[in-house]
Amino acid sequence: MTDAAPEPGPEARWRAYLAEGRFMIQRAAGSGRAVFYPRVGEPGTGDTALAWVEASGLGTVYATTVTRQRPEKGGDYNIALVELDEGPRLMTRIEGIAPDQVTIGLRVRARIAEVAGRPNVVFDPAEG
Amino acid sequence: MAHPLRGKAACVGLALAGMGEAPGRNAMELMAEAVHGALADAGIPLAEVDGLFAATAFHSMAAMSLGEYLGIRPAFSDGSNIGGSSFMAHALMAAMALDAGLCNVAVIAYGSNQRTAGGFKSISEPMPFEADFGPRNPLTAYALATGRYMHEFGATRADLAEVAVAARGWANLNPQAFARGPMTVDDVLAARMISDPLGKLDCCLVTDGAAAIVMTRADRAADGPRPPVYLLGAAFAHHHRMISAMPSLTTTAAADSGPRAFAMAGYGPAEMQTLQLYDAFTINTVLFLEDLGYCAKGEGAAFVRDGRIAPGGALAVNTNGGGLSCVHPGMYGLFVTTEAIRQIRASLGADEGPRDPGGWVEGTRLSLAHGNGGVLSSQATTIWGAAETL
User: Fold this and answer.
1) How far, CA to CA in Å, does B171 sit from each of A80, B311, B364?
2) Which of A65, A106, B177, B320 has the fewest CB atoms in 10 Å of its CB?
3) A10: nearest Cα among A33, A36, A39, A37
4) Which of B132, B139, B200, B248 has the highest number of chain A CBs within 10 A, making it the mutation to test binding with A?
């Protein structure tokens, strides 16, 4: 038999939102806690009543590194963990600033950009 | 009341093979070489092996592949893979299976020829919400954790360099260590940056190597040619797989596995004479010293200053030279374990081969072997002791 769900799974849904230009995360009905990455149930509680909500897009750099790479291979690049204002963290890249100028605590704002050939969430330094 | 598994099984034989570089031999050959060596060390024929435990980055079903290669028919086997800490978990599984009578002679094995086969070998899948950003795991994850640790606690790269210098100090006493020779804090700071703030000498070696241990029930262990070393406590814990999902980048699940293992053993941190801590990167040693109870959170960097964990220091840590300077063939956990056991055997008078003075820590009766897997993901702690510690 085919277990035909009425809608795509959480990852596919999240990527479809990104393709529409929307950065969405989930929120658990019971605890009110924000959930990322997208799941079928809230981590720890198993609450499956997860609603999609628009992310604020604001966050703070929690950790950062510069991956050193020869210029001919593309040069150094940033990888960061950003803690969203809603709580969860995600791996991303901070753009609009030199890779080695990214510091922990930097306030950042999300932007949807193509990374590795598909829409992803990157961050720029937040103004002000 | 003592935990029902405490001291019920013992290591009765072990062997290392292909340490450093082993050109011309494949991972299975090295692993089997270690198994044959460990059985010879134990004085037990291959045909008696009925419990088999293995995990490698070369074999998706390592226990089956090894069983076939050896030509044995195990009654119990386990190929669980929780990264470099797999072998501490295997020791616990082996003790359980032996105690339950499901097998009588258990072998735990690992083998890798990653260095001569072209470099770091992993069978890890790309992390689903991370891979697009080009992390070079495990390196990227440990760099992120190191930077966060320095930010939270004011530690410096020079503090972390002390870990590498101490490991090299121990390696310089150990002819089996791959990376030997002088190393200073300045050398570590001047090494090529790989992923900030980790430079080349903050990172483990990429070597070949194989190891195996043989375990039996305690009642049989005393009959062998080698002093038995008893598994007094073992526990594992994991809280995440991807670094982006680690609850705090500065506290590992060793804060759970350590207390559970100590509770089973009936001994505390201060009673261990050697500590073998899985040092894939310099930050590991600092985090594990904290999480296993040797100093408070945030004090690890100060704790390792002034040669405290180097030869001649207050605490004997990573006495083979560690993953940083002795051997690191991809998954290092079984070498952590063999070093813990060998320190006890050497102190009991067994011939463990030559080391420079101080390389075998006199009077060792209790050793801790702590494994780490994934990206600080899996933590597994084992405590091994001589007969008098039972």
Assistant:
1) 34, 10, 18
2) A106
3) A39
4) B132
Q: Do A79 and B193 touch (CB under 8 A)?
A: no
Which chain B residues are closer than 8 Å to A67 by Cβ?
A: 134-136, 140, 195
Judge whether A118 and A91 are in contact, CB under 8 Å: no
What whole-number distance in Å separates Cα of residue B85 and Cα of residue B254? 11
In angstroms, the CA B30 to CA B207 distance is: 13
Find chain B residues with C-beta within 8 A of A91's C-beta: 127, 129-130, 133, 135, 242-244
Rounded Cα gap, residues B64 and B299, in angstroms: 44
Asked if residues A60 and A103 have their Cβ atoms less than 8 Å apart, the reply is no
**Do residues B142 and A67 touch, judged by C-beta distance below 8 A?**
no
Instruction: Quick: pLDDT tens for A65-75.
Output: 999 999 999 99
| Separation of alpha carbons A50 and A57, rounded Å | 19
Alpha carbon A79 to its chain centroid, in Å, reads 12
In sequence order, what are the residues at sequence separation of 6 or more whose Cβ sits closer than 8 angstroms to the Cβ of residue B91?
B108, B213, B215, B231, B234, B337, B382
β-sheet bridge partners, residue B76:
B51
Nearest CB to B130; choose among A64, A66, A91: A91
User: Kind and range of the H or E element at B275?
Assistant: strand B274-277
Q: Using CA of residue B94, residue B95, residue B101, residue B103, what is the dihedral sign?
A: positive
Residue B77 corresponds to which tokens in the numbers above? 């086997």
| Model pLDDT for residues B286-296, shown as the tens digit of each residue | 999 999 999 99
Q: How far apart are CA A99 and CA A80, in angstroms?
A: 10
Residues paired with A124 in a beta bridge: A109
Whether A98 and chain B come into contact, CB under 8 Å, resolves to no
Tokens, residue B22? 């082993």
Choose among B228, B232, B156: nearest CA to B189: B156
Q: Tell me if chain B has a CB within 8 Å of the CB of A63.
A: yes
Structure tokens, A120 = 């992803």
Going by C-alpha positions, the residue among B370, B16, B343, B5 that lies closest to residue B210 is: B16
Contact B129/A91, CB-based, under 8 Å?
yes
Instruction: For chain B, say whether A79 makes contact (Cβ under 8 Å).
Output: yes
- State the sign of the Cα–Cα–Cα–Cα dihedral B176, B177, B183, B185: negative
Q: Report CA Rg, chain A.
A: 16
Is the separation of the CB atoms in B361 and B202 below 8 Å?
no
- The residue behind tokens 């089973």 is B264
SS3 call for B381: strand
**A1 band by pLDDT with thresholds 50, 70 and 90:** low
Cβ contacts of residue B247 below 8 Å, gap of 6+? B239, B240
Please indicate, yes or no, whether the overall pTM of this predicted structure exceeds 0.90.
yes
